[in-house]
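I'm stuck. Please check this protein.
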Amino acid sequence: MELLEQKIICTTHVLDNGLTVWLNEDHTQPKVFGAVVVNAGAKECPNTGIAHYFEHMMFKGTDNIGTVDYEKEKVLLDCIERKYDQLAQTRDERERKDIQQEINRLNIQAAEYVIPNEFEKLISRYGGTKLNAGTSFDYTVYYNTFSPQYMEQWAEINSERLLHPVFRLFQNELETVYEEKNMYSDQIGGISVDYLKERFFSPHPYAYPVIGSTENLKNPRLSEMRKFFDDYYVASNMGLILSGDFSTSDVLPVLERTFSRIRKGSAPKMPVVSLPEFRGKEQMKLKVPMPFVKMMAMCFRGIPASHPDEVALRVALSLLNNTNGTGLLDRLTIEHKVTAAVAYNDCMNEAGILAIFVMPKLLFQSYSSAEELVWKQIACIQNGDFSDDTFQSLKLEQKREYMSALEDISSRAHVMMRLFSQKKKWEDYLKEVDRINSITKEDVMAVANRYFTKNYLHVTKSTGRYKKDNLPKPDYIPISAHHQHEKSAYAKRLEQMPVKEMSPHFADGNEVNVARRALSSNVTLYVSPNPVNDIFSLDIHYGIGRIKYPLLSQLANCLSIVGTKEESYSVFHERLRQLGSVLSFEDTDSEFIIHVSGFDSTIRETLLLVKEFMQNAKVEKRNIRQLKDEMKVAEKAFCNSNESLAQALFENVVFGANSPFLAKPSLRELGKMEGTDFESLFEEIQEYGGDVLYCGNLELGQVADMLESILHLSEIKFSRIYPAIRPKHLYTSPKVYFLDMKGVSQSIVCGYILGDLVDKPIERCASKLFSAYFGNDMSSLMFQEMREYRSYAYQVNGQYRLPSNLANEDPGYFQMCFSTQSDKTLDAIAVLDGLIKNMPLYPEQVEMAKQNICNRANNAFPSFRDLPAKVAAYHQEGFDHDPNRDLIEHIKSLNVDDVDAFYQKHIKGRPVVYMIVGNSKRIDMGKLANYGDLEKLRINDIYNK
């Protein structure tokens, strides 16, 4: 770890106001990841949802950002705040409706002073991408990536947002939060998990959902939200994290000047609520809408973060499940003794949950017999019934996972955010890695006995659904955006700040250290160095995918559970694990990929094992039975997931029989297959050329020689099949396809328009600009019209999908998606349909879309681990350089007329096909038919069961 400490340096500083700053310089990527962490989350305001919807409001601006006249706006906002306090005290429904209508009237008036989305616009204007935030039980975090030359602007804007946030457009945003809650409630087991947490964590605040109860969301108090901000958003309770391409000595004065403005103060200290011990085996029944599938959970009292047993417990759990699938619970699954068994550990700041989730075999196995098997495996750890070789190899695996998390600025910054929220220091993470070395077998046995006790919550599943809180659509008048293209005085002042000019960095030429060598006419090797640790990754990409062979998805799953002709799965993967290596498989539309990772010191031995597997993989009938059982469970989950069904519906409408959900084998077809069918397919795909991607500490020649001497990749016969094309369906008239799903709160709506060929580079760039302008950004038409102004959706997206650069005869298509409360479905479709048929043109918004595209291109420079894949991908597309270089050059020359020209040619006047997964009882189907010939589909129409 000493070498890692030298390569990854994090310095800590405390500003004059008490705010803690963690700075990690990393010049391997020309960008910076910036985050603000606030040590306050849902547990500080249990069941109210305040922490979460306050996070939403932090994007609405301040007394300087997002307004043309705050003094006049404030008068109305103060009235709105008082009205919400009045609403919370009112129970009469007629009076409540009158108050809400009055709030709506005031909201419309206040909107006359609002500059919508100005905060997001400023982030984008100054090089920002991936703007986001998140609320957990223990903390709230705000983050994004940005270009280094805008460090001063980033610090100015992100400190300004923390000084005087303004709760404007709250009524709209609260409706959006309802949509988010609806989305979670429609997810399989979403409500069930809430009930489990309530039982397990009561009386601790962790017992309540982060988003809050429906009753509390219906009665928000802006005054309480203001108090939450005043109490917890103080400097001593916050951390600033920066990781990336900057100079610490240059940045510190900037941070002192900006973030030192944040209020001093101490956050309230809440007493920690102790959880009572379970008394023996306490029983709980939990409803899950998946018939014929048994589910069980054994939930034990865990440990909070920073507990002395944390590292030892993590090692103990790796004896149950690990990345090589050689754990004691993995063995139950591999040997087909249960359908699945997985250990789970979540250490929050004040409590933890330790659980084992089990799916008994689908036929005849009882809960008690499955549980008995689990206890026997736990006893193996408690009694020390595992070899020292196994123990040492698992410690090595833990070290690899710890080190891998630090490889790029984004994942490293997320580690830092978690550490800060747990009141840890950066050095504590490095000590955890060292602590792994010192863990003894006795330590692991001790924690297994300490926490896997006979006092636990035993949860079993019953088939059913919990009642949902369906809120009726409010009768609100949408706001009007009077100043959407104006700038605040604050934004104009920012424009006067100097900016150091920096040229974009592209993943080509001298900018990247990627060596390339043709191993044969069909195989190319790409090699890049690893500057951080001694972990290698080797990915073998065979150029044939599931479009050609739909069975490849099942093959990838199958190879993950089989051994070789000479060795069982457990024995083979135990040998891999002792080397510190991992083998896995992946399929895509156009490729089948073998992923190998481990330590460079054992790469030769690892590749010899990989060769053994590639030549001698053995698929037995019991493996196919296991696949079939897993597929049965996945099918039950699929048929109860509106998101999965919406995806399958879209694929069916666009690609017909070539949809992967129809082309895949059915359960019956899978059951008829023999092991030799999979073995032959695995042998066949190894005959197709492609790319080999290596990142590690070996030189190009060393890697090439090793691959040739061990894997003989130069002997591959066939060139890759690329591009893999699926014909798209041409509709000559508008259509509406509806899949009825009872009990869901939301409708998931997709739209499809087939365009013409886009074969000129400048027009391909115009398609990206159109997408960003119409629906692929927070400043897009869809986002503003459907989410910001009308609160019809939480998630919206509209994007023109381009085929491969080499697919000259394959047209692109426009895909739109959103989810909305069932009774808002027709209203939301009407807004989208209006945008499609008569797209408004705003030159200022097009310029913002251009900026967003350039930012994404500038910030797209990959981590060292991903560099070979980036270079190989653009070579595969026919480029000899990073295509982002052309994109930025072309985008500069485009304007609103080019967006309009693309729209007129590819979108306007073309038939629109709408697809809806929703509850027909809550939608006027007659009115829905106004958008096209209505056809109802069943699951069997879109999914091969």
Q: What stands out?
A: The mean pLDDT is 95. Residues 551 and 664 are 6 Å apart (CA to CA).
